[in-house]
Amino acid sequence: MLLSKENYDDRVEDADRTNPLPVLHGKGGVGKTSLSCASAITLCDRDKRVLLVSTDPASNLNEMLATPLRDIPTEVPSVPGLHAMNINPEAAADGYRERVLAQMAADASDSERSTVREQLSGACTTEIAAFDAFVGLLAEDMPEFDHIIFDTAPTGHTLRLLSLPKAWTGFLEGNDRGASCLGPHSGLKMQEVRFRAALACLGDQTRTTIVLVARPDGSALREAARTSAELSALGLRNQLLAVNGRFRATKIDDPIAVGIEQAQDSALSTMPVALSTLPRDEFPMLLFDIVGLDALRALFTPGSPVMAASGSVEEARLGLPPLGTLVDEIAEGEKSLVMVMGRGGVGKTTVAAAIAVGLVERGHAVHLTTTDPAAHLSFVVEGAMRGLTVDRIDPVAETKRYIDKVMASPGPRSRRGGQGTASGGSRISVHRGGR
């Protein structure tokens, strides 16, 4: 079923009547925050009370709504009825540590408390704490809001959080001692009933809609299909596909414009079958930045003054050297490590892959890897190329390997710094970092 942008406004109205909990997922940069904010504002314009929550560590809700936000519901003065908040992972981790320590037995020794405090200092604590804060909003009775809209972190991070209760059940049931992640997961065990109730809420089709946001290109659509399957496996099946950035050529004699439209048509016509059967809405590529209330309202209002005023675009002349210049500089050296970093959606994967291919073309052996949980490098680098190896650091596999290692070596563990390794078979390693 194909639905236009105009239909999405009707869908927001339907959600107003039947579904109080939209959750927006998708890879970085596809427009989750824009659609989340526009949906929230549309509902508030209809006299509804809405809480908009970002679980993204790199949230830009503050800029979108022009309001300084905290980790508690904060009123957005310019939109009556709208409150928003950011779940701050570090602040959530601090609060989580205090709750776990407070639940220890009163006769616990200083040594035992110190051990748990050290166990709670790892990165796993931050992830579980963020999920705990997310679950808290689902578990709480919040009659002051008609709708809660979750603007989630990029796909891989969100899936990792949503799968935590299920993934750790066996470990928690069989292991009460001896693992360096015992501290944070002891806290998880204490909240197991609440976590399960929250997942049941997310899986309730009468309460929750999962909106999968994607760009109309093969990589984003394949990732959306994978996300859809993994969410379905977790019991979250009430899904909607929102295709953002749909381009329509206005001049048939412009080969670039026509080519972009045809490429998008091809990607949409060949998307995975499971994704093509979902209800679908499309949003056009816009000529203006979706920041500020007028721009956000214009997203659901074709022909608005904001859109009309954006008809002329001035070409930017930055005078920056091409990427090939950077590749030439890297190629002049011996073995090296190149790390490509940035916020979601800015093109880290594309740039990392382009650098890797450029170095191979200049005669270097290159290893290209990623720590991004979404790991869509293979979608960008299709096929084989002599001199180039591609892999990913799988968070699930590495976590299991770490647990097995810890369980095989019980007892006190000294605090050690991490050690880096280099691949002897590669002269240059290009690493696509997470956010």
UniProtKB/TrEMBL annotation:
One of its GO terms (molecular function) is ATP binding. InterPro entries: ArsA/GET3_ATPase-like (IPR025723), ATPase_ArsA/GET3 (IPR016300), P-loop_NTPase (IPR027417). Residues 24-299, 337-382 form the ArsA/GET3 Anion-transporting ATPase-like domain. It catalyses: arsenite(in) + ATP + H2O = arsenite(out) + ADP + phosphate + H(+). Residues 1-23, 405-435 are annotated as: Disordered. Residues 1-17 have a biased composition (Basic and acidic residues). It comes from the Bacteria. It is an enzyme of class 7 (translocase). SUPFAM superfamilies: P-loop containing nucleoside triphosphate hydrolases (SSF52540). Its EC number is 7.3.2.7. CDD domains: ArsA (cd02035). Belongs to the arsA ATPase family. This is arsenite-transporting ATPase. It comes from Pseudorhizobium flavum. The lineage of its organism: Bacteria, Pseudomonadati, Pseudomonadota, Alphaproteobacteria, Hyphomicrobiales.
